[in-house]
Every structure is written in structure tokens, then in C-alpha cells.
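TL;DR need C-alpha cells for one chain.
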Amino acid sequence: MIGFAWVVALLSLAAIAAVLSHRVSDRLHVPAPVVFLLVAAALSDLFPQLGKLSTGTVRHVVTVALVLVLFNGGMNIGWRRLRPALAPVLWLGVLGTVLTALVLAGLAHWIFNFGWLAALLIGTALAPTDPAAVFSVLGRREILGRTGTLLEGESGANDPVGIALMLSLLAAGSASGWSAIGMGIREFALQIVVGLLVGVVGGYLLVLLMRRVALPGEGLYPLQVLFAGLAIYGLATVARGSGFLAVFLAGILVGDARAPYKREIERFHEVLASFGEIVAFSVLGLVVSLRSLPEGNAWLVGLVLAVLLTLVVRPLVVGTLLLPARLRWGERIFVAWAGLKGAVPILLGTFILTSDLSQQLRLFDIIFVVVAFSVIVQGGLVTVVARLCRVPMRALPLRPWTVGLRVRSEPQGTHRYHVGEGSPAVGRSVRDLSRDEGVWVSLLTRDGEAVPVNRDTVLRSGDEILITVDPDEPDRSARLFRPGR
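>> reply
TL;DR here they are.
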């Protein structure tokens, strides 16, 4: 028992240190995930016994962590927020991932003479992005407008697409010629279609479950949603679909649902996503050997590919796909720069480790170098690029106190909104909204402080409000608070 107690104490102290490292990363403007990754990699070299986790164990642990992160990411976006930016999100998340993988694979093949399968595996592993790294660098600043939605939506879409591509390539690796291409396309299409169906149906059923089934305690509601999300992932995967896509789509549907204890569910999953991020990067760092990077010039190949990916491939792909989008050039440049790499590329690297390729360890080391470059160099300059590109952001002050009311049944006609920049409600008084729109503002917070509401109170950009409308009339209030274009 004493030995077990020591293990619990040490793991708990390590977890506390990981949580506190967010404060260090905030001061240094370095993504918190890179701290977990590099510290874990250094510890695995200093204490080799820490790095003796099997590749299968690492992959399973990181898979569960990624499910938690993607489900929470889908909840944060929600369908209402995603819908205005749906077209560019799909272009970037699906077609952008495929094009990035192909272009980077071509460069790896022609510059470093990798075989086509190895080059495609490298390109596919490095195509997905990680918005958690971007928002970790930005700290308590939020990207406003469609730019932030684009970054979050792109990552939520391209993570499942990248994983589906990787599994398709590995499945087709045993074939050759046109049969391999056909097998890869069929496997990829199956993953996307099944994941889409299971995610939409599962998310819809989960919303019904949240609304219709009453549980005896409020603590059971977040657990119900957690296990339902894991079940959606499992069912989609068993059906040979993309479980990651399914769980992300389910999260989007849950994000807009009005359900009992919704705030408690959201807070619970935010905590789980943070925990999953810590676990994923820490475990992935343990399987990396910093001493092996000089072997086979993995560090040199990784640095060259990282520079090409950052300065050539992503700007070319993103710039082309965003041409029809109504974005300023500064916003386009920022989206191209902010495609940071994170846990998914290294997770895909563990898939390569379990393959039959002769140079699997070298490929994994190259992927690690590119990810490290991305989170350190790109991540370190994200705030600078955002400032130069004049990307609209707002400070998010700490708000540890909440105000809430408990009622027996669903409050009809009550909605919570954030007043977007340039929205029709900006500059209008409570009296005007009540007279012209049938909307009454019952609660208002500004810069983290509660503001007394009267008829002459004028709304500003950034206000958070609770409104009441006639429940018997169609609700068109959302348009009043959407950011202007």
C-alpha cells in the first residue's frame, strides 16, 4: 500500500505541476502543450523506464483524450456559430487537409527521396491542425468574428479527416498500383460517410436523451453525456467509420441544445478536455527519444519540412481555398499562419510505428520535429502576427463568480447572447429593443461586471446579456446580436 501511495502522490504532484505550467506558458507566450510535450520527452531520456509504454497503450490513451477534446470542441462551436462559416470550414477541413497532405508528400518525395507511401504518410500526419495550441498562446484573448470560428472549425474537421486518411493509407499499403489507390479511396469514403451518419444520428438521440430523461441527481447529467459521447465514438469505429468525426458532430449538436443542467455539463467537459490535453501531450512526449533525433538527420529533414509547410504549403493551400470567402487579407494571412500542429500529428505518428515500414522510427522523429517547430516558432509568433494583421480580438477577464437561477421546467423565451462587434444591437437601448423587436434585456454583464439594466441602458460590443422574448412568437432575436460582416 505504501508503494501505491507513493505512485498516487507522485502522479498527483506531476498533474498539479502540469496545471500550474499554464501560468508559465501564459507569461512566456508559449503554448502549454509544448511544455508538457518537451518536459515529458526530456524525462523519458533521463529516466528510460518512463518511456517503456507500449505503442498500443499510448495510442489508446491519446485516442480517448482526443475524443474528449473533440467533443468539447464541437460543443464550444455549436451549429449556430458554425453555420455562417460552414462553407470555408468544410473547404479547409476536408479539401485543405487532402491538398496539404499531397503537396507536402510531393516535397518529401522529391527533396529527400522518400518512397511514395512513406511521403504520403508524413504529409497526412502533418496535415491536421490544433486550435488548442493557438488559443493557449493567445491566453485570455478571444479571436472575434469568423476568423476564430474558422480556426476551431477547421481543426475539428481536419483531425477526423487526417486520421481517416492515415488509416486508409495504411489499409492500402498492402496493395499496389491502382488497386491500392482504389482501396484507399473506398476506405476513406467509408470512414467519412459512416462517421457523418453516426455522429448526426447519435448527436440527435443524445439531445433527446438529455431533454427527455430525468435523472435523480445533477451530477449524473454530465456523466450521461460523457459516456454517450464515448459510445458514439465506439459505435462509429466498430462500423468502420471515423469515430472522431462522429464525436465532433455530436458535440456540435449538443452545443446548441437547451437541456437541464447544460452549464454544469459544459463546465464538466471543459475540465475533461483540459485533462485530456495534458494527458495526450505528456504521454506522447514519453515515447519520443530526444537522443535519437540526430540519427538519420531526422532533425534536419523535420526542420526543412516544417519551414516549407509553414511558409509555402499552408499559405498556398489556405490562400487558394479562402479566395471566395469574405475575409480581409489580414485575416487570411492570420488563418494561414495559425495552423499550428499538435497532438493529432504525433498520434498519427504512433500509427506509423505499428506499421511494417522499415524506417518507421525515423518518420516518427521527423513528425515530432515538425510539431515542435510549429508550437515553438509558429506559436511564439501568433500574437505578433495577429497584431500585425489587425485580427479583431477581445480580452477575456477572469470571471470566477457566476450568477444563476434554478427553475423547475425549461424557461421558455429566455436566451443568452454575446453582443457581437458590428451587430444590429450595438448602440441601441433596452427601450428600443423592447419597442421595435419585442426583446427585453433582463441581465447584462460588461467587462466581467454586472450592469444594472433600465430602459436607457445602451448595449455595447462585447456585452453578455440574458434576454426575454414572447415564447408564443417566432424567435428571431439571434440576428440582432450576430457580428457584422
